[in-house]
Write a structure and sequence with these properties.
The complex is a heterodimer of chains A (255) and B (143). By secondary structure, chain A is of the alpha/beta class. Chain A is built from 8 helices and 8 strands; from the N terminus they run E-E-E-H-E-E-E-E-E-H-H-H-H-H-H-H. A 6-stranded mixed β-sheet of chain A has the order 1-3-2-6-4-5. Chain A has a two-stranded antiparallel sheet with strand order 7-8. Chain B contains 5 helices and no strands. The N and C termini of chain B lie far apart (51 Å). Chain B is elongated and about 70 Å long. The chains are: A alpha/beta (255), B mainly alpha (143). Chain A: Residues 158-187 form the 4Fe-4S ferredoxin-type domain.
Chain lengths: 255, 143
């Protein structure tokens, strides 16, 4: 049963003079004592520029401060506020209500991540797999030991990986991935794209160890190129491209 | 998989509505693969009936000569064509062919790997499968 409330004569971050309003449905679930999630509904005013995160924060401020949501930068940089918005994984701070073209907006916790409470999910497993692929340059020498003060790269060499360095670890790609939906052991598009980021870096010497790590039954071969990860990435990382290029190394098309 | 993991499960994996034609192709690829596997098993069973002699073989062939049999065979033709054409597209993609080149992304961040070449490949697979099915139906029912 959904609980319905509306913003009364109180201060909202969006001026109440706004004639437009939406129904915001928020999934509520506490795994410690709830058997299943329930939706609470709130009527929230919005302007052209109001984001979903701002609407949720309005709800927290005026109706129910116990709604659990993780957020920080509010500008698609920290990767904290990923959630399912009308069924698709998006950053709440990067999604304007006016762009959704819907009078009802449903927000749920990201799929394929364990729920802490309400809209907040656990990132431990994603960070574990990210750490597993060794997300740092591997070399025998360092800048301090070398005569050169830095490891120089040509613009062309930088282009090979810079796109994949934009990853903010928001987890949207893992949430959209159809393999992640069924395979708990799959490395996931986030970690695989980051493996490519370092394998393609001309300064890195850890290619063989990284390729060995992902060349396993729940590794890169579980990606079937559905491409959903790339469609939801808020930073243009295109994990699907990175994974296919990475697979090229294992298949011998690239060296 | 436990409830705590909050996985979408097979329902989420098989939902083709949220991520465009690429996810439709992903679902059709799985369905056609399972369908062809089922046909392969049934085909082995069917052909093994020759061990029962001429009578047994003829009895089984009659089953495929019914209206239902013709429709099933036409679906198998469609699945075979789609799985082949889309499979070639996916295999090329897996080798890094046609997935674009890494570059600094510009807003609104259209993913290069989801480019028009792959979309054309998917639509071609669907159209060719439909034509093959229609041809199969015309041949089977036109006897």
């Amino acid at each position: 049963m959904a609980q319905v409330s509306s913003i009364a004569e109180e201060q909202a971050s969006t001026p109440l003079s706004s004639s437009k309003s939406i129904t915001l449905r928020i999934s509520r679930y506490n795994p410690k004592h709830d058997d299943s999630s329930v939706f609470m509904e709130f009527t929230v005013p919005y302007q052209k520029w109001t984001t979903v995160l701002e609407a949720i924060l309005d709800v927290k401020k005026h109706f129910d401060h116990s709604v659990a949501v993780r957020y920080s930068c509010r500008q698609a940089t920290c990767g904290s506020c990923g959630m399912m918005i009308n069924g698709k994984p998006k950053l709440a701070c990067f999604t304007k209500i006016s762009e959704l073209n819907s009078d009802v907006i449903t927000v749920e916790p990201m799929s394929n991540f364990p729920i802490i409470r309400d809209l907040a999910v656990k990132f431990e497993r994603m960070f574990e797999t990210h750490h597993k692929i060794k997300p740092y340059l591997i070399r025998d020498d360092t800048e301090l030991e070398s005569d050169a003060k830095e490891f120089l790269q040509s613009p062309k060499e930088v282009e090979q990986y810079i796109q994949f360095a934009n990853c903010i670890k928001c987890g949207l790609c893992n949430s959209a991935c159809p393999t992640m939906a069924t395979d708990s052991s799959f490395v996931g598009p986030q970690a695989l794209a980051q493996a490519y980021r370092y394998v393609a870096d001309s300064r890195d010497k850890g290619k063989d160890s990284r390729l060995k790590m992902i060349d396993e039954p729940h590794g890169i071969w579980r990606c079937h190129f559905a491409g959903s990860c790339s469609q939801v990435c808020p930073k243009g990382v295109d994990p699907a491209m990175g994974i296919q290029l990475l697979r090229g190394y294992l298949l011998g098309f690239r060296s | 998989m436990t409830k705590d993991e909050h996985k979408e499960g097979i329902g989420g994996m098989a939902n083709p509505r949220r991520y465009g034609i690429e996810r439709v192709a992903y679902l059709l690829m799985r369905l056609s693969g399972l369908g062809l596997l089922a046909y392969f098993v049934a085909h082995i069973y069917e052909t093994s009936n020759i061990l029962r002699g001429q009578v047994g073989w003829d009895e089984l062939l009659e089953m495929t000569s019914t209206t239902e049999g013709h429709i099933i065979l036409s679906i198998v033709i469609g699945m075979c064509v789609f799985h082949t054409v889309n499979g070639i597209r996916v295999m090329l993609g897996h080798g890094g062919v046609g997935v674009g080149k890494p570059a600094r992304p510009d807003y609104p961040y259209e993913p290069a790997s989801q480019n028009y070449r792959h979309k054309i490949g998917i639509y071609s697979a669907i159209v060719l499968a439909a034509f093959a099915m229609m041809y199969g139906l015309a041949v089977l029912f036109g006897e």
